[in-house]
Amino acid sequence: MTHAMLKGSNIQLHATAVRAVLRWTPGTGVRDVDASALLLGADGRVRSDEDFVFYNQPRHPSGLVRYLPKRREPEGLTDSVEVDLGRLETSVERVMLSASADGGTFADVRDLVLLVVDADGGETIARFEIRPETGSETALICGELYRRGDGWKFRALGQGYATGLVGLATDFGISVEEAESAAPGEPGQTIPQPPPEPGFPQPEPMPEPRPEPQPHPEPPPGPNPPSPRPVPGPTPGPEPLPEPEPPHPGPGPEPGPEPGPRPEPEPAAASHPTAPVPAGPPPGPAYGYPQPATGVPPAQPAYGYPHVPPPPARPPAHRPGTPDPAFTLPPQGPQFVGR
């Protein structure tokens, strides 16, 4: 079964020898691609320049890593490197599978794909379609073979270099004469370490705690503002005098009060003089109802001064032969009540 790889993905390899095949579609203006391999130690660098296998150095001294010449196949041109994983020295921890564009950039290379094939059975194990990120890359780390326990794994990378094969090789410790002709100022590329085994996830870094915002000090309270002085209101003036009441005729006959104790006669020297009673016998009042004095005009108040009411009229004197309206029976005992 062929695994379709994505950038950064990895699979376990069960084959003891594999062949890394770079394939692309040729055409007018399409650059050729050259495959290469770098054998790295535990420090991520080559042990010597002999650990770099490419078209000018097609065979490793151990004979376990070999460069294969180009071939034309129905699907396109190929360039390959073959690695005997089961027999590699234990000091080799990783094998980087790289590529370079001959005289141009990978923007001029069409349908570039990396195939990992079982060297013994010929079965394609993995397929990784490589797409340059910027188009200005002249060299690529296409993938890597790395140890994991007693076996090997493959990881898809697709990391680009703008300094060509020379810049890529010198990044891993290769000393080449053409290294001085590399473009100055190009930063070195860092190849990430192989991913951890499934089931043993790496802990995520804890974010640094953010400092809590400090409250701004409040300004000290200033002196209390003076309270507003009360505004004096208008001084009340003298109350207006009441309007004088117009004269009105005296009241008509009203029912007299209940018989009570007979009033004592007032002394001769009264505080208010009374009007003289006209001569002649006055008309007798109705029985039990004292009549007010008649023939005396009411006193008119002076203009602008309050009216002083006249004193009450005295009851008429008792005439002999008539019942006294002020007479009441003395208190009686219980034997006379109800008779």
Short summary:
The protein is mainly beta and 339 residues long. The protein has one helix at 164-171; strands at 3-4, 10-13, 17-25, 33-40, 52-53, 65-73, 76-84, 94-101, 110-118, 124-129, 139-148, 151-161. The chain has a domain at 3-172: Sandwich (Lipoxygenase-1), CATH 2.60.60.
Q: How much helix is in the residues?
A: under 10%
Order of helices and strands: EEEEEEEEEEEEH
Alpha carbon gyration radius: 67 Å
Mean pLDDT: 75
Number of strands: 12
**Alpha carbon gap, first and last residue:** 143 Å
Q: Find the CATH superfamily of the domain at 3-172.
A: sav2460 like domains
What is the class of the domain at 3-172 in the CATH system?
Mainly Beta
Gross morphology is: rod-shaped
For this structure, the CATH topology of the domain at 3-172 is Lipoxygenase-1
The tally of helices reads: 1
Assigned CATH architecture of the domain at 3-172: Sandwich
Which strand order do you get reading across the main beta sheet? 1-10-9-3-7-6
Question: What this model shows, in words?
Answer:
It is a single chain. This protein has 339 residues and is an all-beta fold. It has a domain at 3-172: Sandwich (Lipoxygenase-1), CATH 2.60.60.30. Helices cover 2% and strands 26% of the residues. The strands form two sheets. The chain has a six-stranded mixed β-sheet with strand order 1-10-9-3-7-6, with no helix packed on it. Strands 2-12-11-8-4-5 form a six-stranded antiparallel β-sheet. The longest helix is centred in the middle third of the chain and has 8 residues, at 164-171. Mean pLDDT is 75; it is low at 178-188, 199-203 and 267-275.
